[in-house]
Amino acid sequence: MLRGAPGEELSYEQMLAVLAQAGVVYGIDTDLLQAICAKPQPNQRYVIARGKAPKAASDEELVLSFNAGGELHEDESGHIDFRNLGTFNSFKAGDVLASRQCNNAELKGMSVRGEELAPPKCKPVKLSAGRGARISDDGTCVIAEVSGHACIVGGKITVMESIEVREDVDFSVGNIDFIGNVKIRGSVHPGFQVRAQGDVEIGGNIEKATIECGGNLLVHGLVFGHGNCRIRVGGDAQIGALDQAEVTVVGDLRVENYIRHCHVICGASVELTGKKGNIVGGEVSAYRHITAPNIGNPMATLTKLNVGVSPFARTALEAQEKDMQGLLAKREQVNTTLNGLLRRCGGNPALLDARLQDALSKLKLASAQIEQQIQTAHHELDSTRGLCADYHESRIKAADHVYPGVLLTFRGKYMYKTTDQVQFVSFSEQAGEVKTGTF
């Protein structure tokens, strides 16, 4: 009841003040109050404030961080690239794969005194984690324990470190970009790409495709590049044969049959293992050795072989030297500012105000961190410079024939071009001259 003194009618503002004094702050019907003030009705009861009852909550939802099925993606122009089907969901260890979500934030109620009224609790959804995944300690989400492909297997959220394609990589599969290991039982068709941070195994052939892997590569079939094929391998590679392809291998490269008209860069040794294998045309570079049954052909096709120089370390050295210059410049900038503050306070930080003392502390921390980074960079530079050293023990060996037209280069300096056909021969560089010896 809102009453004033006998014979006195309360104004609208006085009514609001009385309500506030009583703690009523929410759901006030201001139109009704104004109507009462305009035409009072003695001894009449009114409902002048209403709270908001909480709504019934729905069940929790399981929100996946990945697409549980295949999905086609449109580009900016609205076209669909059928080579990117989104088949594989790559996640790193520690990533959230799924979470429980209860959308009841808008279901809360409110009393007329401004007190929140909690809604009924959501009915919890059950989390189920399979191989390579786990439920978080607080039970709210599923987390990847390993890096790999996220999927649902037997109703459980699972992470597979390796994936297997039981067919060819074509429009039915699409490009593959995966964080783990990839095994393909079939072939890789022209124009498609296979990228993996782990190992890659291909049971069939590769034709005019792109293959990149951070680990080892095993190709049971042949590579037909047609001048439009690129292969990048972070470890060792074993391939049936190479034809008109661009190949970069950080470790050893072993080819069973032939290398024809290719551009090959190898961080260790190149070896052809088949009895009739040959290297003909193109250019093959290796840090240590190149070994093959036959090199060149009777038509004297120009074939370039290079050994003794690291194909990767020099590029890495240049990048590390650039990074070092950046760190040294950053150290100079930080130390200049730091020394300026120290001179300002005469070496006594207590004389600075709180803001400058905080800045001084941050500069000292930054200076120490940069010094640590510079020390680490020095160690990396020393290691890379060691790798840049020429390999003096390099050999180019042929178990059968070396034909005319083969250009041999040792350590980027010493060259020798064959003019006659020779057999069972080994080439090496000694005291600045290319020498021949027996296989």
Show the helix and strand layout.
Elements: H1 12-21, H2 30-38, E1 61-64, E2 90-91, E3 96-101, E4 109-110, E5 116-117, E6 133-135, E7 141-144, E8 148-153, E9 156-160, E10 162-165, E11 176-178, E12 181-184, E13 193-196, E14 200-202, E15 206-207, E16 210-213, E17 217-224, E18 230-233, E19 237-243, E20 246-249, E21 253-255, E22 258-266, E23 270-272, E24 278-286, E25 289-295, E26 303-307, H3 313-344, H4 354-388, E27 395-402, E28 406-410, E29 414-417, E30 422-430, E31 433-438
Parallel strand pairs: 10-12, 11-13, 12-14, 13-16, 14-17, 15-17, 16-18, 17-19, 18-20, 19-21, 19-22, 20-22, 21-23, 22-24, 23-25, 24-25, 24-26, 25-27, 26-28
Antiparallel strand pairs: 1-3, 2-8, 3-7, 4-5, 6-7, 8-9, 27-30, 28-29, 30-31
When the domains are counted, the total is: 4
What helical percentage do the residues reach? Answer: 10-25%
* Main sheet makeup: 6 strands, parallel, barrel
How big is the Rg? 37 Å
Q: What's the total helix number? A: 4
* Strand order in the sheet with the most strands: 19-21-23-25-24-22
How would the global form be characterised? elongated
Low-confidence stretches: 70-74, 80-85
**Average of per-residue pLDDT values:** 88
